[in-house]
Amino acid sequence: MTRLPAAERRTRLVDAAVRVVAERGVAGATTRAIVAEAGMSLASFHYAFTSRDELMAELITTVVAHELTALRPELPTGRTLHDTLREGFMRYFDHLVAAPEREAAMLELTHYALRTPGLEALAERQYESYAELATLSLASAAAAHGVRWTRPVPELATTLVALTDGITIAWLVNRDGELAAAAFDLAAASIARFAEPVAEPVPSAHSSRPAHSLEATS
Amino acid sequence: MTRLPAAERRTRLVDAAVRVVAERGVAGATTRAIVAEAGMSLASFHYAFTSRDELMAELITTVVAHELTALRPELPTGRTLHDTLREGFMRYFDHLVAAPEREAAMLELTHYALRTPGLEALAERQYESYAELATLSLASAAAAHGVRWTRPVPELATTLVALTDGITIAWLVNRDGELAAAAFDLAAASIARFAEPVAEPVPSAHSSRPAHSLEATS
DNA sequence: GCCCGACTGGGTCAACCGTCCCAGTTCTCT
DNA sequence: AGAGAACTGGGACGGTTGACCCAGTCGGGC
């Protein structure tokens, strides 16, 4: 008998549930499958959680946090804005290809949350977090390339997340990597076209970047 | 005892299943829920279908066909390409807002098909059909506005479907109609920017549309 | 050492599920 | 009219599910 504090057992059960959902989908993540994966008894499940839905809520919160950490934007390295955006999309795509079942699970969990009374707010929070991440990416890219966005950033962020989700679904269905990569490149080009150079307000003592350099590099 | 031929009973069961999935999701579409909705006995279910999966396969085929019919592109009426594309997106958005649970069900069925051995090909066929519809829309819009696409059409079609799916999910989660409409407008603008006027091969006796008229109208 | 709370794990419960069984009814064909 | 196929519908089956039960063990505090 190895004793674990309840909090530790909860963590292990949630980690196990992440793996089970990824492998079998939400419907396959029964309490028995989860405890089997965690190497525990069924009673331990109910000792640690009052219900399966409580575990699912915590599962959603956990996987969203992990996703945000994994996809935190890196310092922009592209020579052009388009390059930077494309690199961001391709970084996500590498992440998707490395573990397709994970992204499929994210999408399934969204639908599950929307369908489960009491969990709707988690789906909302999930998508707010994605929008924040997209906003951060857009701001970072704009700053690195000396541009500003010609559309309201919430719209651009929504569109960026939509493109990501939509191309993900298409890829999960057809596994056409070339087409997905091309679509991500097209997505990057689309968004890049809503940028314009930031005009310098006044001449400064610093050597300023010429306004036409954006055109020259694209 | 009202006698029905098996084919009629199958149709009624599928129609009932469409309603049940829309209301309760795939997990809630049990054989008992479906027959209750159809006003039949459970034995009639198994008389008409050899298994629940057989009914689900037919359900997917049916709802995809209905979706394609509902979203068949209309004659382009926009004054500019951007307008035409935006109108197409907004027509879809009206369709979504009129029955959100229907589009949510479509997405859920995709995931269900991907998760169910033997049904994967239905998900693929679903997305091929969407791409064909998008391709038709793009061709129709290009012809109406005298432009051609500067990106391969499969890429543009994939992106158009991705934008549709992605904005749908975002709206299902947050029900922010203004943001969704703005995102659809931005999506239309994005795609419109991958068009260029079709050059006339040779001067003709017909009055030709001036090449700069596209810029003037946008 | 004792007590109490935290923890463990085997077992059980009622409800639900997809599938199957089977007797009865109806319809069509000969 | 009779036979056979198509159809009807109530019930049963074995399996699965989330949740609960409960006796036993362990650890910490007094």
Q: What attributes does this structure have?
A:
DNA-binding, two-stranded antiparallel ribbon, mainly alpha, 2 strands, HTH-type_TetR-like_transc_reg (chains A, B), disordered C terminus, Arc Repressor Mutant, subunit A
What is the CATH homologous superfamily assignment of the largest domain in chain A?
Tetracycline Repressor, domain 2
Cα end-to-end separation of chain A: 65 Å
Helix content of chain A: over 70%
CATH fold label of the largest domain in chain A: Tetracycline Repressor, domain 2
Chain-wise SSE layout:
The structure is a homodimer of 218-residue chains.
Chain A: H1 6-24, H2 31-38, H3 42-48, H4 52-70, H5 81-98, H6 100-115, H7 120-145, E1 147-149, H8 153-174, H9 177-192, E2 195-197, H10 213-217
Helix pairs in contact in A: 1-2, 1-3, 1-4, 4-6, 4-7, 5-6, 5-7, 5-9, 6-7, 6-8, 7-8, 8-9
The structure holds a DNA duplex (30 and 30 nucleotides).
Q: Can you characterise this structure?
A:
The structure is a homodimer of 218-residue chains. Chain A has 218 residues and is an all-alpha fold. Chain A has 2 domains: 50 residues, Orthogonal Bundle (Arc Repressor Mutant, subunit A); 154 residues, Tetracycline Repressor, domain 2. Chain A contains 10 helices and 2 strands, in the order αααααααβααβα. In chain A, helix 1 packs across helix 3 and helix 7 packs across helix 8. The radius of gyration of chain A is 21 Å and the shape is elongated. The N and C termini of chain A lie far apart (65 Å). Chain A binds a DNA duplex (30 and 30 nucleotides) through helix 3.
